[in-house]
Amino acid sequence: MLKKIKKKIISICKYLGFKILLPIYYKFCSLRKVDNKLVLFADHRDRKMADNFISLYDMCSKNGYKCVVLSGDVFGKKVPKSKRRIKKIKYMFRFMKLYAQCRALFLVDYFPLAYLVKPRKGTDVIQLWHACGLMKEFSYAVSGTSWGRSEKDMKRYPMHTTYTLATASSPKVCIGYQKAYKCDKSIIKPLGSPRTDIYFDEKFKTEAKARVRKLFPNIGDRKIILYAPTYRGKSLNKSYVNCELDFETLKNKLSDKYIFLTKFHPLMAKKGFKESGRLIAPDFLYDVTEILTPEEALCAADVLITDYSSILFEYLLLEKPMISYVYDIDDYISDRGLFYPYDELTPGPYVINQKQLIEKLLTVDKWFDIERTRKYKEEYMSACDGHSTERIYKYIFENKKR
Question: Could you tell me the fold of the domain covering 199-381?
Answer without folding.
Answer: Rossmann fold (3.40.50)
